[in-house]
Amino acid sequence: MKRFLRAVGIETSGKEEELYALLLARAKAVDEALDESERLHERNLIRTDVYERFQREYGREKEELNTVIRDLLEAEPALLKQELLQSERRVLQAEESAITDAELSGQLSTELAEDLIAEVHQKQARLDRGETTVTSDIEREGYREFWRERATAFGLDVDEDVLDETAMEELTDESGSNTSPLDDETEGAGTD
Length: 192
Hints:
- By secondary structure, the chain is mainly alpha-helical.
- Helices cover about 70% and strands about 0% of the residues.
- It has helices at about 1-5, 15-40, 50-75, 75-105, 110-130, 140, 145-155, 165-170, 185.
- The two termini are about 20 Å apart.
């Protein structure tokens, strides 16, 4: 990972990476503890007062961890970029898998699947250069998505308004809620 980060121009000392890994691992453990206590309570395997104690204790720790993680990412922008690039790589792999599944199930022609997968590969190539494609600035993306081209060619009006900061905050939930920086990324994967 360190070689990859240096190759794409991200320099870190290693200490902040170690702290970040520790904080993320603890946040994941806290989330698992909260989930398990809820499962036990739903099955009536622990009393409500015990469940509430777990929820208070681990809930407090989760809030504290989220604050420290957010502060660390603000203080060390290289970590935030690293997380964005790693997360985007996982998301693009999921995109490619979904396209392949749609093709195999007959929902999508091979030709369209190849076009969509080529677009995913284009985004992956940008990641290899240390560039993210996750931006609200369409001009900075450097390309227009394949589906937009097809919809426009069909005569549909494709809204390409650039999101303002308020809309981005609503989408990314950076408005001060109690979600972890990884909650959105891993919600469907079963890990936090």
